[in-house]
Design the sequence.
């Protein structure tokens, strides 16, 4: 490969990296960030809360909010639909059952249109008398907010690799 081709490939890669960094930096702070949760993360409670809520640093869109509470038995322990009020998303909780870890999963839409999802857990220390809702399926467990940069980096590597391959086989 000639020096010229090598330089061209290098500058293309650098441009792609710079673009990826710019895109990532642009979206990193734009959407809603969680500022507090109730019950607190990893809190130990003797009785279940009537509601669970997550508060964000800006108002959320009121549509398409999802929030579930999954118990140590793998069942859903929420009752009713999630509610969005300003920066707070919350959902009602049934009287809880087995002692152990309960995980709250949520998916909300920021004012800028970005979907933010995540989860936290709290622990019930004494068995309650409640009965569960239906079994939670895997789709209800919202994954953590997926960062964009691994995909951008992957695309850069693929594009860069293709360019280098082409240059190598042309000369
Ligand atoms: Cu955003």
Sequence:
């Amino acid at each position: 490969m000639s020096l010229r081709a090598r330089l061209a490939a290098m500058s293309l890669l650098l441009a792609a990296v710079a673009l990826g960094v710019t895109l990532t930096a642009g979206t990193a702070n734009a959407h809603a960030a969680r500022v507090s949760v109730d019950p607190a993360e990893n809190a130990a409670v003797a009785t279940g809360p009537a509601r669970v809520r997550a508060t964000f640093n800006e108002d959320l869109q009121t549509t398409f909010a999802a929030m579930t509470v999954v118990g140590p038995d793998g069942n859903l322990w929420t009752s009713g639909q999630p509610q969005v009020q300003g920066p707070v998303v919350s959902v009602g909780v049934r009287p809880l059952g087995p002692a152990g870890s309960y995980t709250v999963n949520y998916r909300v839409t920021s004012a800028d249109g970005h979907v933010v999802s995540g989860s936290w857990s709290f622990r019930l220390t004494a068995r309650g008398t409640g009965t569960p809702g239906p079994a939670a399926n895997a789709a209800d467990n919202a994954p953590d907010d997926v960062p964009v940069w691994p995909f951008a980096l992957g695309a850069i590597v693929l594009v860069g690799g293709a360019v280098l391959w082409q240059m190598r086989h042309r000369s």
Q: What stands out?
A: Helices lie at 3-28, 149-170. The chain is about 30% helix and 30% strand. Residues 21 and 80 are 41 Å apart (CA to CA).
